[in-house]
Design goal:
Length: 191
């Protein structure tokens, strides 16, 4: 009975002096909790991940004007066919990576249930793998409407889903502007 919570409400989360960086909190044994729990107090969560830089908006899911959910930005997954889902995929679709504004980033954190404390995603030690949008404004992980910008799939007909499907809604490809791209990364369990 555990839960992941994205903290972006009310002008997004401001963490470690990183305005609008966003945060995702892992809270264990929620059935045993009662009362109000302030997520600014570290004893109220098992682990937390913070966006790497200003305006990353980690864990933020926009809703379009027609009411369609913008995506699954926080996902429990089981990429290694373990007994339960203990891997985490986090999306920051407007992350500024390698001086590329709004390129977007998708993070894989394996065995997250054994991690404790607050972890900034600006440190390579705090995630297993990160995929970045190729250019500014790609918004990797965002679909601008379908809700499926990041998916764990079983493309190779293996025994379980361990392939990663990513969209970049604004990627420029084949000399076309903002026509978008879809990327397939196979066998992420072996990273």
């Amino acid at each position: 009975n555990d839960i992941l919570i994205g903290n972006y409400a009310s002008d997004f989360a401001d963490n470690n002096s990183l305005t609008n960086s966003g945060a995702v909190f892992f809270i264990q044994n929620i059935d045993a909790l009662s009362g109000i729990k302030d997520l600014n107090i570290s004893s109220n969560y098992a682990a937390a991940w913070y966006g790497a830089s200003l305006t990353d908006q980690l864990g933020f899911t926009a809703t379009t004007s027609n009411g369609i959910d913008g995506g699954k930005t926080i996902q429990f997954v089981n990429i290694d066919n373990g007994a339960y889902a203990n891997d985490l995929v986090l999306t920051a679709s407007v992350a500024d990576i390698n001086s590329k504004t709004d390129a977007g980033a998708v993070y894989l954190i394996k065995n997250f249930d054994s991690i404790t404390g607050a972890k900034g995603l600006g440190s390579l030690d705090n995630f297993t793998a990160r995929w970045n949008g190729g250019s500014a404004s790609d918004q990797l992980g965002n679909t601008a409407g379908s809700g499926d910008g990041v998916q764990i799939v079983n493309i190779d007909n293996g025994g379980y889903a361990n392939d990663l499907l990513l969209t970049a809604v604004n990627a420029d490809t084949n000399s076309l502007t903002d026509n978008g791209s879809v990327y397939l990364i196979k066998n992420i369990a072996y990273l």
